[in-house]
């Protein structure tokens, strides 16, 4: 009598998550020379790799023994924060310089853009040594070694052996609910500092949900891609809001003369009229940032509605 046919086991969630970690670890290591060489966009891409690694370790933390994965996530947060300071200044610079050049002639756009460009150069010169020092540190080397050790001998729990697609669907639904809670909180808070903080938290939740779906894409296909795209739209809208809030705060400091890059009439030797002209231009830019933040808040219900569907996390 022939032996009964056997069915190959479904791909496990543990195997897919480990593949995601391995791929992002490779990206992280490959980008280090580019960051050291100060190549365009290298800091941004390395920061994203840190975030994707950390997000996977947090979102799928129950697949791993608690100690090693949690410690590694903490170290990735540290490296991402160091890279983030430099990257945030890049984003702020690109945004404000583009807006400054579009100012009306009576705001002296080229002069304003020149002042801002000089400030951002000084900020870059200040922050770059901190990034290089972090890459040279024993802490960074230990992070790389710990990540390699986790991938070589993964501390997986039993639940890592579960079929991938049903588990990814369950986790995507959980992340969708988590994001929905934060979006509701943000909308209820309304404009103002509390609302800005709540919208930033909603952005982080949407990003984590997006990354969770990206991890699932190799096995969940188009359904996971659609989920990731909807969450990315929410993330990007709230990113626009956050960028506008940060830019407005920087411009407020510049106009008040409290930022290291501020140039006032007293320190240029050109008289108070020049300082007033700078402050006026910064005020115009400030108003534009407030308008951009308000526009993003107004669009959030519409954009979130496309990511809130109950069927969206059903990957199987």
Low-confidence stretches: 1-9, 258-273
Question: What kind of sheet is the major sheet?
Answer: none
Q: Secondary-structure element sequence?
A: HHHHHHHHH
**What is the general shape?**
globular
Q: Number of DSSP helices?
A: 9
| Coarse structural class | mainly alpha
From the N-terminal CA to the C-terminal CA, the straight-line distance is 36 Å
Rg over CA atoms, rounded to whole Å, is 23 Å
**Mean of all residue-level pLDDT scores:** 89
Strand content: under 5%
* Residues in helix, %: over 70%
Care to count the β-strands?
Answer: 0
Write a structural description.
This protein is mainly alpha-helical and 316 residues long. 79% of the residues lie in helices and 0% in strands. The chain contains nine helices and no strands. The protein is globular, with a radius of gyration of 23 Å. The two termini are 36 Å apart. The model is unreliable at 1-9 and 258-273 (pLDDT under 50).
